[in-house]
Amino acid sequence: MEIIEKIKTNKSIDNQTEIQKICLNKLQSSPLPNPKSEPWRLSNKSKFSDLLDYSLNEKDTKFDTPYPNTSQNIIRLVIGDNCQIKLIEENYSIKELSEDELVKYIKKQISCFDQNENWSELLNLSLSCKKNILGLKINGSKIPPIEIFSHASSNSLNAKTLVIFLEKNCDIDLLQVNLGKDNSSLSQSTFFCLEENCSVNHGVVSYGESKSNLLNSLNVIQEKNSEYNLGSLHFKFNYARFEISIKQSAGNAKTNIKGMQITKKDEQISTYTKIEFKGPNGFLDQINKSLADDKSHAIFEGSIIVPKIAQRTDASQLSRNLLLSNLAQIDTKPQLEIIADDVKCKHGATISQLNEEELFYMRTRGITLTEASKLQLSSYFQEIITFIPVSKDRWDLLDKLLNEN
Amino acid sequence: MVNENLVKDVVKEPYKYGFVTDIETEKIAKGLNEDIIRLISQKKEEPKYLLDFRLKAFKKWQKMKEPDWAGLGYKQIDYQDIIYYSAPKQKEKISSLDEVDPKLLETFDKLGIPLTEQKKLTNVAVDAVFDSVSIATTFREELAQHGVIFCSISEAVKNHSNLIEQYLGTVVPASDNYFAALNSAVFSDGSFVYIPKGVTCPMDLSSYFRINSGDSGQFERTLIIAEESSSVSYLEGCTAPMFDTNTLHAAVVELIALDDASIKYSTVQNWYAGDEEGVGGIFNFVTKRGKCLGKRSKISWSQVETGSAITWKYPSCLLLGEESVGEFYSVALTNNLQQADTGTKMIHIGPKTKSTIVSKGISAGNSNNSYRGLVKMGTKATGSRNYSQCDSMLIGDQASANTFPYIKSQQPNSEIEHEASTCRISEDQLFYLQSRGIEFEEAVSMMVSGFCRDVFNQLPMEFAAEADKLLALKLEGSVG
After folding, report:
1. Interface contact A37, partner B, CB < 8 A
2. Angle A88-A94-A99 from CA coordinates, rounded to 5°
């Protein structure tokens, strides 16, 4: 109940938005997620309570975006105080969602939320004040790539919400960057709605500093003939959860997901995905990679749900994991729940370490063990990193992963 | 679309083992309490340690909650409405099969398990369990010559008490889970096998479980101990009459393999599954676990699960000994309103341990068939390997097939591979076979049998043929 009390004392009831009130109300019946339920079973309890321990903060400290924007061709937005959406609206076919539209859309989403399964979203929405919710309506196809930042401030718990509505035939590249700070917690929820014939390349890159925590949820609804490609990378968090829920509302849509999480020291990072096919001819290709080193713990749980209506679904899910230390731990649980009979569904999972034969080969050619390992890791990382849009030229993610930690 | 009705017709075969044997039985009152447990123990003239074991288990069971994580939908079981001990009335001591009630022999004859001397299956020793007691064990003398002990667990309690005291409950502790605790408190009979050091059991051993009475549950317990360098192949079969009430079956099987020993445990489970409306059928909640204690020991589970209204069963291996091997081969077929949640657990504890999982699920009708498995590599399991393969075949668009593999690794120097796929009997394949003059039903059955081949290859010969036939019968009328 503590977190609810904290939100309530932080804000008088009159200051709360309608959405905050609804979500708080829903949370009251289950103030904390059920630790025995499947999505929370493996979550580290003390780390999770650390996440909730920081004081709530609606104000942003001064924030310098990393890698200054040198290119004119990229739109940059920062959720919160520094948001410059007005400037963008003038030049491109991007509109900020009106408050009514936003409330209507979010309310519709909340109505089908499950207290336990969507706990992270409910917390986020009950924390997010008006200025920390960014709602965009995008149309057209000649839109430059977009970068959207969410960031936390030191010693506080911040919440940011992003709602993106893509109108018919829209085609965009969007990179979301979630940045943690020293001793901070960030709650980020993203809602995507893709109308017919939309195509999105969505990137999510999240990294923190020491003792950063992240609760990241992504909710996607795809209409007919839409294509959603997600490339995600999470690393350097004391505790992070990435919850993905994708619904192909009428089937006939394509989803590609390539995600990766890297844990070191005593970090715990987990990814939960739930893909539902609500119509026929859906397509999914998903790969999730984890790397766990030192005393860390990486978790992946992915479920694919194919009801009777979703005939001719073609779905595949692969979980590949590297376990590099004796004290590290990996849990993975790919799941299939199928009722339709005319479907092609498969999943696979592997856990291993670096390939010894390949290492040996490289060493016989005079490459040191460290270099050889790096080479192997870089090929392991590349598959995911090259799938993350916008970042390729500017973010140097590979270098960050190989050298910074 | 293939003619759905045609295929549906193929799976409808009446349950041919559904008859009831009219025999006088001795039953105790319904309900479960300490007095009932004392009564069962007294009836079986058990030593005190066993009564204490039962009472302790009962106390634990009372504090436990029935598990609901498998998501099986079945009507609540009233544990006070079950008879926990039911035995056919017979003379005090039977010295030979001639003294067994002919009706009982006839029952087993009808089931294809002849117990009489003339008709004994060659090279298979059978322990026949009827409701709560074992009525006969064949080939005992021959086995005794090799030092092999094969008898009912009640007899073992009397004659080999030291072994029972040493091993009972060491693999599946009384508090392991709700149904294991219940079984530990009220188990009535079952089989006991002891293979001495260096002995390869000269014939396959087999237990046949028959539930006859509609209101009593069956709670058997099997314990198999394979000493150093010994090996045994054990077969288990089960049937029950058709009642429109549900009968509870909660068994526990414990296997122990010491250095270089090998145990092969095969099951063809064909309990009554209920009718097309889902009325009646056995609730089958079974805990089966093997402990590879010794170095290079091996435990192999193979099962063909076709019966039961509810199946909740996860034969597992604890791989403790260095280089020990665990295997699990399973075919689970569900039809009509059957629900099966089955799979395995491979817990790698010792170094260089290996495990293989091959699971084939076939769902037809409105049934629900899930694979649920765990592969765990502990911190000391260096150089260990696991390979799992789970395939599902869906017949018709009303059945569901789910896969829930849990994979956990704490050892970098180990490898785990898992793959799962889903398919159906395709129109093209059926057309191809039919165009070669193969009858529709036969074509379906050929394809199902091909789908299950990896598992059938692992079954002992008598079982493999039986399993193949069983699947064909069960599937009659369901392919779509």
Report:
1. no
2. 100
